[in-house]
Structures are given as structure tokens and as C-alpha cells.
Amino acid sequence: MKSVKDEARHGPLKVGFILARSFTLSAFALFVDTLRLASDEADKSGRVLADWQVVGSTRHLITSSCGVQVAPTSDFIEPREFDYIVVVGGLLNSDVTIDGQTSDYLKKAAAQKVPLIGVCTGTFILARLGLMKSHQTCVSWLHYQAYREQFPGHPVRSDRLFNLDRNRGSCAGGSSAADMAAFLVRRHISRDAERNALEVLQIERARSGLDIQPRKPLAIECRDPRLKAVLITMESHLEDVVPTEDLAASVSLSRRQLERLFLEEMKTSPGAVYTRIRMERAKQLVLQTQAPLIEIALDVGFDSASHFARLFRKMYGQSPTQLRRATPKNAYGNLI
């Protein structure tokens, strides 16, 4: 990860928060509480070493995805007053999650080279404003496909917890918001401050930006974090199958080294595991949708429906059509 500022700084760490409509309360709370607990000794909540504001175009309450409302604590102030501006997103149920004044404020901050961080789907907001095109973005595996579809050509990955790339940061959300906040505390305040915050939050250790998101495709068990990262990449690229060489390079291994790891932990090859992941997704689509088989085949990376059907029969003992016909339907005629 690349530095956004020189580590030598003066005065408290200052962070501005922008909360989108339907923002994720847990991600915001963990981020700001890590700053709060690092800012003073003995959980006194004094803003000695860090300070923060929730800024907004109005002081109206902002409703989180769980229904709890939070009021901004400040109008928009000069962006350069902050060391970071953190945009906390949430539900992807609307393109209008911030108003025009907030959009203009973020663009002004970007022009002034104030580091901007997207938490949860806050990265979508920054990307819609054209502020993530040349920056590696980290999103949750849950939102990976949506990000790729909405922002084609934007560099994105779903195997890491957070990332800081020059003047842009991104965080998968959830508990990783505390990890990213702890990283900023360690960089700008001290390791002691980080340790104090995490101990009070009952977090054993801060995970780094290189830690892997806790996701197990098909509940496949493996210990090596590089294998976990490759499995997440496989699951995220069913239609556009990633060559084994590129999978290996994504975790800084050669093809032979990756194949050896798969053989040691899973007793099979990367290609065989990739096929299993693709076919399990295909099976879900066969059972849960009425999509034509050719569409399902294309969705999991096959150019030929006949090839797909042959492999499906080999793996599951019956054709996709036979499986679909044998699946019970509800009173509305839908597969159950």
C-alpha cells in the first residue's frame, strides 16, 4: 500500500465523515470509536490525539440501513481541515445516496488532494463521481460483481479487507472498518494508541490490508491465505475465467508454485477446483431460476451449452433439464 502523507505530522489526526443514505451503522461506529479510544488515555473520550466531525449539507438526521438515525455535527468546512474524509455507504438500493452539494464537496476535496476513503459501498459513491478510475479499490465480495458491472475498467478486488492507494482508500466494511481506522491511528498517532483502542474494543489484533476477507467459496477449507485469495478470485470471475498463470501472479506465485499449494492442501489442481466452483454456481441457477441453459452456460464461462450439459451430467449424474424437472415447485409454479 502506498503512503498518502508523510508520517511526520503535527496536531491531532482529523477525520471528516460523510454518511450516505442507508449507511451501515456498524462500519461507521467501529471506525469512529477506534479513533475515539485512540485519542485519549483510559477511555476518557477526550479529543486529544484525534478529532472527527460528521459533515453534511444540512443538519437533518441521516437514517442508517438498520433505521438508527445520526445527525451531522458540522456544516461543510474547508476540506483541507481534514487529514482524511471518510464516505460511509450502505444499501445499494438507490443511485441517489448523497445530494449535489455533498458531491461537489467531495470533488473539491479530491481537487485539493485530501485523501478520500470509501467504507462499505462508499467506494461506489466515489466511483460515480469519477474519483476511483485510476485507484485500486477494495470492496466486499458481496458487492464485487455490482462494482464491476457499474464501473467497467475500474481496478477492483474482493479478497482484501482494505486498501490505501495514494489519495484514495477503500474498505470492505463491517469489522474491517476498525482495522482500517487502526491502521490510520498507528500511522499518525502511535502503536500504543492503536493498542489501547483495540483492547477496549475487545479486538485481539488489527488485521492488515493484506489480510484476506473471511469468505469460503463452497465452504472449501484451506489454511494458506494465498489459496483463500485465489478461491475468492475464482468465485468472482465465473464468466470471464482467469488463467491459472494470472491467478498465481495475483498472489505473487508462479503457476507451478500455485499448483503445488493446491495439491498439498486440496489434493487436486487449481483448474479442477475452479470448475467445481463454476458448476456449483450453475447448479444454483438451474435450481433457483428458469433461465435458459445457454444463458446459464455463458454465466459460468462456457461458450457451448452442449459442453456445459455434458460436464453437468458427469458431475451430478443427470442433465440440467432433468434436475430442474425433478425439483419441487411451489403453488405459483416457481422452483423451490
The percent of residues in helical segments reads 40-55%
Structural class of the secondary structure composition?
A: alpha/beta
Q: How big is the Rg?
A: 23 Å
Distance between the termini: 46 Å
The total beta strand count reads 10
**CATH class wording of the largest domain:** Alpha Beta
Domain unit count: 2
Major sheet summary line: 6 strands, mixed
Residue runs with pLDDT of under 50 for 5 or more positions: 1-9, 330-336
Portion in beta strands: 5-15%
CATH architecture of the largest domain: 3-Layer(aba) Sandwich
Q: Write down the overall mean pLDDT.
A: 89
Q: Give the strand order, joined by hyphens, for the main sheet.
A: 2-1-5-6-10-9
The total count of helices amounts to 13
Write down the CATH topology of the largest domain: Rossmann fold
Question: What string, H for helix and E for strand, traces the elements in order?
Answer: EHEEEEHEHEHEEEHHHHHHHHH
CATH homology superfamily of the largest domain: Class I glutamine amidotransferase (GATase) domain
